[in-house]
Amino acid sequence: MNPLIQRMNEISNHLKQFKEVKCLLGLGSLSEVSRLDEYSDLDFFLIVENDYKEKYIDDLSWLRVKPIVFQFKNSNDGHKILYEDGIYAEFAVFTAAEIIQAKFSEGRVYYNTEDFDLDLIRPRHTPLVKPVNIEYHVNEALTNLFIGLKRMQRGELSNATTFIQVYAYNLVIPLLERVYEKNNIENIDLYVYERRIEKHFPNVEKLLSNMRQGYLNNKESAKAILDFLTTNFKTNDQIVSNIRKML
User: Fold this and answer.
1) 30 CB-near residues (< 8 Å, 6+ apart)
2) The whole model's pTM is what?
């Protein structure tokens, strides 16, 4: 049995003694178990009776099926933790009233009480896949390259890296599907486009590498992004010319 599934089963069995707990919902690869591998983590929601949320956030005894060596409350709803054996988990605690407002993809139930209404964990706010606005992505990316290169000339290399290799890059990658065939579309992450991008576009690793060459190579990264945009999309000659002058 996969160690993560085994850990979820251990937590599920442990939860039976906590009468306020209504459901344990696995998310991500804990829901799509075919994606589980040695690099996966535990990602789940715990659903409890009203008025008990803070108790299960403040007291993690319900999770201590193995020693916890690190814990960090990263939001008002939950923690990130690390077990002694290296299994890492992120979780949130919700009441039944809260879970219907939460944004999440379809999960897998690992534990629930007989009186828990499973309809409550039906995703109601899953983001829709919106068509890419090509004009916006192209022009916003160009302006980010322009600003980033100016920051680089000023000596602000860190901020230049952010504008070129983060902001512009993140605007460009949704444009890949307009140029390349997208594979493995059943494993799309609706919240983070970049997830599994190498599997969706198996022939673009060199291109992506060229777009992100690191802190000391902002010019080279900007050139790769600019070349991709001008080769595949309609671009404004004037701003392109200004960018090329800085390159």
Assistant:
1) 4, 5, 8, 36, 40, 42, 43, 44, 107, 108, 110
2) 0.76
